[in-house]
Amino acid sequence: MRQTMQNDSVFLASNVTPSQRQLEWQKLEFYAFCHFGTNTFTGKEWGDGNCSPLLFAPKRFDAEQWVTEIKNAGMKALILTCKHHDGFCLWPSKYTDYSVKNSPFRNGNGDVVKEVSDACKKYGIKFGVYLSPWDRHEKTYGTGEQYNDYFVNQLTELAENYGEIFCFWFDGACGEGKNGKVQMYDWNRYFALIREKQPNAVLSICGTDVRWCGNEAGKYRTAEWSVVPSYVGNQQYTAERSQQSDDINFSKRINGTASDLGSRNAIEGVSDFIWYPCETDVSIRPGWFYHKSQDFRVKSVKKLMNIYYGTVGGNSALLLNIPPDKNGLISKYDVRVLRKLGKRLRQEFSENSAVNAKASASSETEENKASNVISENGFWQCAEGDLCPEITLEFDEPVKIDKVVLRENIETGQQIEKFEIFAETDGGFTKISSGETIGNKRICVINPVKVQKIKVKITSYRRIAALKRIELYCK
Ligand code: FUL
Prior knowledge:
Layout: H1 9-14, H2 20-26, E1 30-34, H3 38-42, H4 63-72, E2 77-83, H5 112-123, E3 126-131, H6 145-161, E4 167-170, H7 187-197, E5 202-205, E6 211-212, E7 227-229, H8 235-241, H9 264-267, E8 273-275, E9 278-283, H10 301-311, E10 316-321, H11 332-348, E11 358-361, E12 380-381, E13 390-408, E14 416-425, E15 428-435, E16 442-461, E17 466-473
Parallel strand pairs: 1-2, 1-10, 2-3, 3-4, 4-5, 6-9, 9-10
Antiparallel strand pairs: 7-8, 11-13, 12-17, 13-16, 13-17, 14-15, 14-16
Helix pairs in contact: 4-5, 6-7
The structure holds beta-L-fucopyranose.
């Protein structure tokens, strides 16, 4: 235990823990974004809200195709752009004519939100809603209360009619510029409504449960903290860093991302903290919407695996955008990569050999024993006063590994600041990896090695050191 002054920033941060809904969300790790709407047909990224609904005409739309490919690639949920900035609604909203009901899709009787949410239910993945606060079509946008009523009405339709929703994703983007309309969003009213109608849903990005990573390029932090100063949770903070103009290069930029939000240095002098875990959103293509011209620019499996290791394996969730095409299908170019990605993930994490080991530690508590790290339940916690706790897994026979997965017990907060991993081979212990944070999950990719023992040393932590799991894999 270090620095236990009761008013010390590090001590205060160490007391912050996730809510139940954040813990449930944390289990998803990897899920899909589907940008689909009029832009799919016009070739734009930011529609201006003036194009005719008649353009929305997917001829072979099949939500089950989306969901089966997404599930196969290892993703556990899907977030649909029910309304993007152009204001066009993918469900027949009662409050506007600018929706699927005036499009050729299913002769005006279609409901994309219904078909996608039903497919998610059928195949057992979660469904989430993206509803853009910024609306370029709706006349009341910029009037204050009238637009807030409109937005609340739409949220109510979505929250009431499509079953369980795991997430409401509120984009911070707005490109109205200096002379554009200014709308004062009534966030508290939106959030209260969702808490009432969908109490298990997380509020993301401009919401208070899940934090935007700060870029759209798949760039991640080497040390990702879920406990951050409260001001990071302010909607203004997120909006100012979000996209301000229709600029394709925004998705490549990483300079808006603060590299450190939670280390001792970053939180010095701060006394207010929140649990606000990171989500990294990135598109499988250069754009968020489908463009035929980008068919040959789908990210490779290698690139996606790197992003996966850095995000899912770096205490962030990964929200991978897969934009369906004009037919209303995930195109064969994306399908090819998604299938390979799913196969690769299954290979990389096929068998956890840690379950066959014997665990011992420099210290443990009565309830939270070392052996818990290789079981299905519980966690290991070192005894008070153990300043450099270590835990060792020992095998009867040497085991080949190329990845060590560590999971902190985040129910008791995020506290581990530095760790080192050693392997005992024929020639004694050698260091094979080290890192700063762990949080929900840290994946350490190492050179393949045959080990008799693995030792994890926690060289710096805040108030408690508690590991939920150690897993060992080899492809
Ligand atoms: C941004 C938007 O402006 C993009 O169009 C896209 O929806 C992305 C996920 O968020 O802020």
